[in-house]
Design a protein that fits this description.
Blueprint (H helix, E strand, L loop, with lengths): L4 E18 L4 E14 L4 E6 L4 H4 L3 H16 L7 H11 L4 H19 L3 H4 L7 E3 L2 E3 L4 H13 L6 E4 L5 H14 L6 E4 L6 H13 L4 E3 L7 H9 L5 E3 L6 H9 L5 E4 L7 H13 L4 E3 L6 H11 L13 H4 L11 E2 L2 E3 L12 H7 L5
Parallel strand pairs: 5-6, 6-7, 7-8, 8-9, 9-10, 10-11
Antiparallel strand pairs: 1-2, 2-3, 4-13, 12-13
The structure holds magnesium ion.
Protein name: Muconate cycloisomerase
Organism: Sporosarcina newyorkensis
Keywords: Aromatic hydrocarbons catabolism, Isomerase, Manganese, Metal-binding
């Protein structure tokens, strides 16, 4: 069969980032990616990129993805027809529980390959475009309130980004909230910020701060509480002060239904990796649409490869009213493709070439390949 999958292979790369990034639990200075190559019998090759914010985020890392793909998905999928996307997703779900980041990485490479088979961009295989470019919110993460305000002002002045998100969760809830209010006030009248504590805030302090966060015009509060605390999220949302966004707590279509029934989210943050791929992400957006919930295009901080996959999926969605945080390629100090994504005036363009529309730069892959593998 000319389109069947002949071989699946993986490589870990460590790409430097421009400045250290403060997450809730750690500071990072390089970003690790797992590249997946899917070679078809006809010689066409699809590329996928798997990366996670860190193993703290959902329990996966590039190393776990590599094992899952090499040991389990590769033998399972060799000889299969990559055009049967839904069957392949089902097969992966039956044979390997969870591990959505690994599944999404394989799916990405399959869409890239199938797009090349039909010579159409992946978005065409996903239902067609709704918009050609997507707004990007930049994450202010200098680790210091004044530094964040300064960076925000500079980016606005240079017409690069106009809306922002800040990372929180490293400090106690009250301290984090005070810093967020300080940054929001520092940017008042020219911009707005959302806050992402990555599930690290405590419920009671969050409730006490909702009025002041509202007064500071905070745009949204992303996953303030543990993803397991659905009741807490419902309580915060019911206060009608600051919209509550679900991120870590929203991965599967079942999570989407549960959050909607519990009225525990006002906005859905989508992420192709956490949901096991582009197709699942679009299904979640449809569930959100049915419930009148707007979406935000989340990122796992991918290079231009993974970011393209996000763009192909998000570009087909009509309820992406909160824009995106697809700034991965701008945040990294280097890229892995010959044709990096174009981001201008706070918007990033959906690539239009076949498949993901990006071309792997083999020299860069060799340069950043993890030598100790
Ligand atoms: Mg988040």
């Amino acid at each position: 069969m000319e389109h069947s999958i002949r071989k699946i292979s993986t490589i870990i790369v460590d790409v430097p980032i421009k400045r250290p990034h403060q997450f809730a639990t750690e500071i990072v200075s390089t970003k690790s990616m797992l590249l997946v190559n899917v070679e078809l019998a006809n010689g066409l090759v699809g590329v996928g990129e798997g990366t996670t914010p860190g193993i703290w985020w959902n329990g996966e890392s590039v190393e776990t993805m590599k094992v899952v793909i090499d040991q389990y998905f590769s033998p399972l999928l060799e000889g299969k027809d990559p055009r049967y996307t839904e069957q392949i997703l089902e097969l992966m779900d039956i044979h390997v529980r969870a591990n959505p980041f690994a599944k999404a990485t394989v799916e990405m490479a399959l869409y890239d390959a199938v797009g090349k088979v039909y010579e159409v961009p992946a978005y065409q295989l996903l239902g067609g475009l709704y918009q050609e470019s997507i707004e990007v919110k930049w994450a202010l993460a200098t680790g210091d309130a004044n530094g964040d305000i300064e960076e925000g002002k500079e980016l606005i002045e240079n017409n690069r980004y106009k809306d922002f998100k800040i990372k929180a969760g490293k400090y106690k809830t009250a301290e984090d909230a005070e810093r967020a209010i300080q940054i929001a006030n520092g940017l008042r009248g020219i911009s707005s910020i959302g806050i992402d504590p990555n599930g690290r805030w405590d419920r009671l302090t969050a409730i006490r701060y909702m009025d002041r966060l509202n007064d500071a015009d905070i745009d949204f509060l992303e996953q303030p509480l543990s993803p397991l605390d659905i009741e807490g999220a419902s309580e915060l949302s019911a206060m009608r002060k600051v919209p509550v966004m679900a991120d870590e707590g929203l991965a599967t279509v079942q999570d989407a239904m549960r959050l909607i029934s519990a009225k525990a989210a006002d906005i859905f943050s989508l992420k192709i990796h956490k949901s096991g791929g582009m197709r699942n992400t679009i299904k979640i957006a449809a569930i959100a649409e049915a419930a009148g919930i707007p979406c935000f295009g989340g990122t796992s901080l991918e290079s231009s490869i993974g970011t393209s996959a996000c763009l192909h999926a998000y570009g087909t969605i009509r309820n992406l009213q909160y824009g995106s945080e697809l700034f991965g390629p701008q945040w990294l100090a280097d890229d892995l493709v010959k044709n990096p994504l174009v981001c201008a005036e706070g918007k990033v363009q959906v690539p239009t070439g076949p498949g993901l529309g990006v071309e792997l730069d083999e020299e860069k892959v060799e340069k950043y390949r993890r030598k100790s593998e």
